[in-house]
Amino acid sequence: MMEDGIPSLAFLEREEEFDIIQAPYEELDEGIKTAASDDDDATTKGVLCTRSTDDAYVERWGSDRFYRHYQKYGVNTIWGWSKDSGLRPCAVYPRHCYLAAKSMGETCFDSFLDETVLADRTTTIRQYVERHPEVLLMKPPPELASRYSG
């Protein structure tokens, strides 16, 4: 995925709608040492996919791509949804994120469930899954099974 902290083009295209940044982090388990943690002056950094804007998408990828990937299907915004839009995640995506977070351990899993919210900016993933447990049963189509299985 990354070489020298720079995401690959394949990664950037897969996560095309996000702003990709590097962010410092600390290991949760004090017994784990990273190359950077051996040096008191070094900071360990990871990659984060963060909220962006429709304008940033168009600036990076062009208006033609925005049309082909979104507007052509009646989706006129990626990031401009109002709190009362009623927008919910694609059926297989919450399951994918749920499985991925769960595989990272309890702290990561709980953080994902309790600190990630829907477009309404209120409903947590934990609440959403409790109200809609069927999303955890949604299997991706065969061509996406390896990508969306956690």
Describe, in plain words, how this protein is organized in 3D:
- This protein is an alpha+beta fold and 150 residues long.
- It contains 6 helices and 4 strands.
- The protein has a two-stranded antiparallel ribbon with strand order 1-2. It has a two-stranded antiparallel sheet with strand order 3-4.
- β1 and β2 form a beta hairpin.
- α2 (54-61) packs across α3 and α4 (92-103) packs antiparallel against α5.
- It is globular.
- The mean pLDDT is 87.
Sum up the structure in keywords.
6 helices; 150 residues; 11% strand; alpha+beta; 2 domains; 33% helix; two-stranded antiparallel sheet
State the separation between the terminal residues, measured CA to CA: 16 Å
Count every helix, treating DSSP H or I runs of 4 or more residues as helices: 6
* Poorly predicted regions: none
Strand order of the largest sheet: 1-2
Roughly what percent helix? 25-40%
Oligomer kind: single chain
Query: Rg to the nearest angstrom?
Result: 18 Å
Question: Biggest β-sheet: count, sense, barrel?
Answer: 2 strands, antiparallel
Outline: globular
- Class by helix and strand content? alpha+beta
Strand fraction equals: 5-15%
Instruction: Domain count, please report it.
Output: 2
Overall pLDDT metric: 87
Please outline what is shown here.
This protein is an alpha+beta fold. It has 6 helices and 4 strands. The mean pLDDT is 87.
What is the secondary structure topology, with strand pairs?
Blueprint: E1 2-3, E2 6-7, H1 9-14, E3 19-24, E4 45-50, H2 54-61, H3 63-69, H4 92-103, H5 106-115, H6 125-131
Helix pairs in contact: 2-3, 4-5
